[in-house]
Amino acid sequence: MDVLEREASKLRSLVENGTSVQEATALLRNLKIGLTQLPSLPPSTIENAQANRERKVARDVLESAAILSIQQEDMAAFERNITQLNVYYHSYGTQLPASQLQYPLIGTHLLHLLVENRMAEFHGELEMLPASGRADPNIAFAMQLEQYLMEGSYNKVLEARKNEPNPYFKYFMAQLLQTVRDAIAECAEVAYPSLDLVDAAKMMMFASPQELVAYINAKKPQWIIKDTTVWFHAPQKHLGAVDIPSMRLVGETLSYATELDRIV
């Protein structure tokens, strides 16, 4: 048990430094193998004199694993680690010493659910938290972002990047910004036939028109850039007098009038 605790502490130092990802990954693999030998952990959950000590080590390892998965941008691994951590946070929370990483990691998971628009799961996670947990800055930040998104206050989402409560949010905030840009793009297509390139770039939160052009090339190839204007749909041809089949229309109108007079 002493060896596992020392190795868990070493893993935490490695992931917090973020400079030895390969070494941390190898150490994590060995630690997870070691955890399978502890009888107090799920699925066995056999109570013994060392149960709380074993569960704390397991929680510490899983928290480090969650941080490592964020650094590697491995969202499948992140979700697996959070799912396992929820057992320790919610089932054993009163038996173990408080974890300083609990709400930062839960808040990060909430942000991940927002990015993927998994709103039912987002609110399900919130329901599991006590009132004191919802007041935590990490949870409150995620809840506020959800409110901004529901209101369509996309500029506030952009401003919120300046007040991220923990460093784990950075990757997800970048993803959320992309989600917001896509939503703005869809609204712009409906609301406007065209926009000035500079104005469109500002609206979609790009630092320069060149970034907007790159976005259009990658994700909106149907948009047309002509001179300094972005056309969301092909410009419509304005009909002139020669384009209107006036004689045919006049003839049809007279025919309808004749038929109506006959009926009356």
User: Taking all residues together, what is the mean pLDDT?
Assistant: 86
- Secondary-structure element order, as H and E? HHHHHHHHHHEHHEEH
How would you describe the shape?
elongated
Helices, by number, come to 13
Structural class: mainly alpha
β-strand number? 3
Low-confidence stretches: 238-254, 256-261
Rg over alpha carbons = 29 Å
Main sheet specs: 3 strands, antiparallel
Portion in beta strands = under 5%
Helix content class: 55-70%
- N→C terminal distance: 101 Å
Strand order of the largest sheet: 1-3-2
In short:
The protein is mostly helical and 264 residues long. It has helices spanning 2-17, 21-35, 51-71, 75-91, 102-115, 119-127, 131-134, 137-151, 154-160, 169-191, 197-203, 209-219, 246-263; strands at residues 194-196, 224-226, 229-231. Keywords: Proteasome.
List the helices and strands and how they pair.
Blueprint lengths: L1 H16 L3 H15 L15 H21 L3 H17 L10 H14 L3 H9 L3 H4 L2 H15 L2 H7 L8 H23 L2 E3 H7 L5 H11 L4 E3 L2 E3 L14 H18 L1
Antiparallel strand pairs: 1-3, 2-3
Characterization of this structure:
This protein has 264 residues and is mainly α. The protein contains 13 helices and three strands, in the order H-H-H-H-H-H-H-H-H-H-E-H-H-E-E-H. Strands 1-3-2 form a three-stranded antiparallel sheet. A hairpin with a 2-residue loop joins strand 2 and strand 3. Helix 1 (2-17) runs parallel beside helix 3 and helix 5 packs parallel to helix 8 (137-151). The protein is elongated and about 75 Å long. The relative contact order is 0.06.
